[in-house]
Amino acid sequence: ENAKMAKEKGIKGFASTDHGPSVPGSAPRFLPYTMRSWPEYIDGVRLYKSCEANIIDVSGDMDISPFYLKMLDFVLAGLHFAPEEEFDKKNTTKAYIAAYESDYVDVVVHTDNPRYPADFEAVVKTAKRMGKPIEINNQSIFLREGAEVNIVELIKLCKKHETMIVLASDAHICFNIGEVSAAAKLLRENDFPVDLILNAKFERFEDYIDKRAKRIEKIKG
Questions:
Q1: CA 154 to CA 112: how far, in whole Å?
Q2: Which of 20, 100, 116, 191 is at 20 to 30 A from 65, Cα to Cα?
Q3: Which residues fall within 8 angstroms of residue 102, CB to CB, at 6 or more apart?
Q4: What local confidence, expressed as pLDDT, does residue 97 receive?
Q5: What is the pLDDT of residues 209-219, one digit of tens each?
Q6: 88 vs 115: CA distance, rounded Å
Q7: Are the CB atoms for 22 and 54 separated by under 8 Å?
Q8: How far apart are CA 114 and CA 131, in angstroms?
Q9: How many angstroms separate the CA atoms of 61 and 99, rounded?
Q10: H-type alpha helices, 162-201
């Protein structure tokens, strides 16, 4: 369904990023093993095997082990049901930075979430240093009160530090595949350079995926 809708919308590829097992009702931790049998293309649409792992402590550890993460094309990580009293601004920032410094993680999701305040500049600078993007999440604008202000701040910081972003639909259903109009509007209003949007061009994202695969190949064990 996702591939069919993506093709109808003229989208060349998408990442399938089910939540990690710490989210109730989500995919089991061994899903990446199953995904190895999935094709790279479905009806001409590139399918990136991915996941949205849960950060489970302030050290950036996740609920999906490296054994499975190394099987994927692209890895997201984020906070979902972590205790807010534990993840204050200092600890959330620490967890986000640790996740970005992980060999396996490519992007930390919805850092705009007001429930988990963070030092955005420190996170943006870490992403830049690691050669990884910051997520600009379209759904956050509608689902997380106060997130839009944080998104604008992230956009401005990424522009300032020339940090790449990924523009994410966070679709959760095929009908929302590629729906990023609200986030794109904020990017235009802040004159964000298209050259810094990692997934604005298929070839640009593919180049990142190729380099990521080589990075993972070098990891021992």
A1: 8
A2: 116
A3: 60, 77
A4: 98
A5: 999 999 999 88
A6: 9
A7: yes
A8: 25
A9: 7
A10: 181-189
Half-sphere exposure of 199 (CA within 13 A, CB side): 24
CA distance 60 to 62: 6
Cα–Cα distance for residue pair 29/27, rounded to 1 Å: 7
CB 146 within 8 A of CB 114: yes
Contacts of 111 (CB under 8 A, 6+ apart): 78, 96, 118, 120, 123, 134, 135, 150, 154
137 contacts 106 by C-beta, under 8 angstroms: no
3-state secondary structure of 145: coil
Any bridge partners for residue 166, and if so which? 135
Question: What are 142's two structure tokens?
Answer: 């509608």
- Tell me the pLDDT tens digit for each residue of 129-172: 999 999 999 999 999 999 999 999 999 999 999 999 999 999 99
Question: What tens digit of pLDDT does each residue of 78-106 get?
Answer: 999 999 999 999 999 999 999 999 999 99
* Helices assigned H by DSSP within the chain: 2-8, 31-35, 66-69, 89-101, 120-130, 140-143, 147-161, 181-189, 202-217
CB atoms near residue 186 (< 10 Å): 17
Nearest-5° Cα angle at 149, 104 to 171: 50
| Cα 53 from Cα 70, distance rounded (Å) | 13
Please report which confidence band the pLDDT of residue 221 belongs to, taking 50, 70 and 90 as the band edges: low
Tell me, what amino acid is at 119?
Answer: D
